[in-house]
Design the sequence.
């Protein structure tokens, strides 16, 4: 999609990295489609140099967030149904729910002729940065989804965004023209309001009523890891769990989960051999999950084995059972560790699980 797509993707990354999730660069490796014990592939500019040490806790490397054009879920409808009334010059439709990380259907219907005009979507977000929002339109001639043009939000109005696309249509009340759109938030839950308008190229601007969608996500909790947890070198393993309940009305495809850790002390880094992570697999018992270096000597991550087959349906629950021990060879470090849960190559939840390593 050319240079513009790269610009838009970079803006989306900056918005997401501005959230709390940016504190863990290791998340980049654990939310992909890799199997158990493998490093998940990065998307986008995956070959960028990784951030190491202190930088890794504040700025994640490029590619940590899914780019707008990649998705493993079924795409939104490419032929949007006409919306609104016959008297409406422009109508706008938006799904009432837009789950985090999933594409949600949207569309514009025109009932007035437009010659080299412009459709404009004024967006207001609540709970997340408008720069983390991606809106695409379907182009029937190329059978592709392409990003809309957008203006960067200002420092004082991070909840405001403007998306536009050019349009020419011989539309009328009897023969409406509809453009299929799809919307996705890459950051956090909240609300999204979109007000659509069209400048028809003849000096007129028509507006449609604003539509609002709730941006939600599955409910994820971590059990068995209270604040203040510490691990002893060569000591007993600590068992904990990750529970994901799909509280949205949409199925979440390709559910993934991962673990990451980073630590160093006295000139010695925490290494993959020092972290003994195991996952319980029904019918197989406890299996060790290999920690994989993420490009920085002190950092590592692992993708957990899937615990559900197929998409996580609305109301369904997935539980990951884990236990963690530290080898005698590990340094007595304060470890920045945590888990992430997502779908395909996008994380919709993460939680830090920091712990110190004690000598006894």
Sequence:
């Amino acid at each position: 999609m050319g240079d513009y797509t790269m610009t838009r993707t970079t803006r989306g990354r900056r918005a997401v990295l501005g959230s709390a999730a940016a504190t863990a660069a290791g998340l980049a490796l654990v939310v992909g489609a890799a199997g158990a014990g493998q490093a998940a592939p990065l998307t986008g500019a995956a070959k960028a140099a990784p951030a190491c040490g202190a930088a890794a806790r504040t700025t994640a490397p490029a590619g940590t967030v899914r780019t707008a054009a990649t998705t493993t879920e079924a795409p939104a409808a490419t032929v949007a149904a006409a919306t609104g009334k016959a008297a409406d010059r422009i109508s706008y439709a938006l799904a009432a729910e837009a789950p985090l990380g999933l594409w949600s259907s949207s569309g514009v219907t025109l009932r007035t002729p437009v010659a080299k005009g412009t459709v404009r979507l004024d967006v207001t977000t609540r709970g997340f940065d408008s720069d983390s929002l991606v809106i695409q339109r379907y182009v029937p001639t190329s059978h592709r989804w392409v990003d809309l043009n957008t203006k960067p939000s200002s420092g004082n109005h991070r909840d405001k965004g403007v998306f536009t696309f050019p349009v020419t249509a011989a539309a009328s009340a009897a023969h409406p023209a509809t453009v299929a759109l799809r919307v996705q938030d890459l950051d956090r839950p909240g609300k999204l309001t979109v007000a659509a308008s069209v400048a028809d190229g003849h000096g007129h601007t028509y507006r449609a009523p604003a539509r609002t969608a709730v941006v939600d996500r599955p409910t994820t909790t971590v059990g068995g890891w209270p604040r203040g947890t510490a691990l002893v070198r060569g000591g007993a393993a600590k068992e904990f769990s990750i529970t994901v309940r799909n509280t949205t009305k949409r199925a979440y495809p390709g559910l993934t989960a991962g673990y990451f850790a980073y630590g160093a002390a006295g000139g010695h880094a925490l290494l993959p051999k020092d972290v003994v992570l195991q996952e319980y697999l029904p019918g197989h018992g406890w299996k060790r999950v290999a920690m994989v270096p993420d490009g920085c000597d002190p950092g590592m991550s692992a993708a957990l084995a899937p615990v559900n087959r197929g998409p996580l349906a609305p109301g369904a629950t997935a539980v990951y059972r884990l236990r963690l021990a530290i080898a005698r060879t590990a340094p007595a470090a304060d470890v920045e560790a945590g888990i992430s849960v997502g779908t395909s190559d996008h994380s919709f939840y993460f939680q830090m699980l920091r712990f110190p390593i004690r000598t006894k």
Summary: The chain has two domains: 22-62+218-358, 90-215. The longest strand covers residues 114-126. The CA atoms of residues 232 and 332 lie 9 Å apart. The chain has one helix and 25 strands.
